[in-house]
Amino acid sequence: MAKFDGYKDIYVFVEQKDGNIADVGYELISEARKLVASMPEMGFNVVGVLLGSGIKDKAGEVIAHGADKVIVVDDPLLKDYNTQFYADALTQVVNEFKPDSFLTGATVEGRDLAPRVAARLNAGLTADATKIAIDLDKVKDGEALLLVTRPTFGGNLFGTIVCPNTRPQMATIRPKVFDMAPVDETRTGEVIEFAPKWETTEPEVTILEVEPKLAEGIDITKADILIGAGRGAEGSLDYLNEVAKELGGEVCATRAVVEDGFADKAVQVGQTGKTVRPTLYIACGISGAVQHVAGMEKSDFIIAINRDPEAEIFKIANLGYVGKIEEVMPLLVEEIKKA
Ligand code: FAD
Fold it and tell me: Hey, which of 110, 169, 262, 334 would disulfide with 105, CB 3.0 to 4.6 Å?
């Protein structure tokens, strides 16, 4: 009998707000599909778990994004995210269906929810991961051991963590580190409705008001156009902010700029900042250190402006301009507007 008899499949928590599903759920489903394909002998499925109120009709969308099955927990108590009811419901889902692995986005919600569920289940959890794989040697013994890699020691090292003794193997994974597979509307799958048994319907915490912090739109992971400001752009930040507004984008920054006090940590891109993949990334006065590049190299199109022709950033740029930001940027903006 296998060590974890009855535990099967890779589950993904599909985060949603007001019925809008966050991309990270689909990114994780796409990556889970690759893991499942790497070990066909295990016969695993990819299962999406969708919690909310009035969200049943979203299951088809989750299947179109690559899930084989979707477990839907549709209950008025789950209308808005709250730790108590979400953790209760998810723990019951795990106890009922016994996933072998359980992935959630390392979002504000996922970081709150996953550790609570893991603690209740006495399961191992690796937080804030950037890579996942299966130990294929173990597959021969009927085990789908998840190798979860995350930056550690301030980003100086990467550690790969395994949870060999407990199930499910849980991980929170940063948004934007995996590609989202194309949607396939012809995919079919199974939808399973699950009704949790509430011990109490009295909330421990009542939210009186929600004030969105990102009212001014400074969520760089969602921006379609990003202007990356490096140390060479510290004197041009006001101008770059104006340009970003004009182009409908946002300004993000390197760690050097954040440490120099010119930008907030929330807009730092890179290994110890955020991972972004906009349609257009304009790197201004950025040298191209590996730690920065790690967070933006998957952008669709990269333009680099640097006065140093030897700057590393040119190696990953689709288009490079050698010159001063103050001189090159106005010309570039004119060209972009014409395009
Ligand atoms: P610099 O390296 O100082 O480059 C400035 C560039 O601007 C130069 O290439 C220069 O030629 C150019 N320049 C100057 N003036 C002009 C001008 N007028 N016009 C055009 N070009 C000009 N960095 C990150 O960004 N994100 C991270 O998450 C991150 N994590 C890290 C984690 C660890 C553990 C470590 C050790 C480092 C990390 N770093 C990170 C820092 C990283 O190594 C670099 O130091 C940093 O990215 C450099 O920032 P920069 O390119 O803005 O500055």
Answer: 110
Q: What is the ipTM of this complex?
A: 0.99
DSSP state of 131: E
Neighbours of 83 (CB within 10 A): 14
Q: Identity (one letter) of the amino acid at 144? A: A
Element (H, E) at 77: none
For 113-166, the DSSP string reads: HHHHHHHHHT--EEEEESEEEE-HHHHTTT---EEEEEEEGGGTEEEEE--TTS
pTM: 0.74
Q: Give the list of residues 6+ apart from residue 209 with CB closer than 8 angstroms, or none.
A: none
Q: Is 328 annotated as a binding residue?
A: no
Residues 93-150 have pLDDT tens digits of 999 999 999 999 999 899 999 999 999 999 999 999 999 999 999 999 999 999 999 9
Is residue 127 classed as helix, strand or coil in its secondary structure?
strand
Residue with tokens 């890699």: 149
The alpha carbon of 272 and the centre of ligand 1 are apart by a number of angstroms equal to 13
213 three-class SS: helix
289 is in an annotated binding site: yes
CA of 256, closest atom in ligand 1: 49
pLDDT for residue 87: 98
User: How far out from the chain centre does Cα 155 lie?
Assistant: 17
Query: Is residue 286 part of an annotated ligand binding site?
Result: yes
Burial of 309 per CB tally in 10 Å (0-12, 13-18, 19+): exposed
Q: Is the CB of 267 under 6 A from ligand 1?
A: no
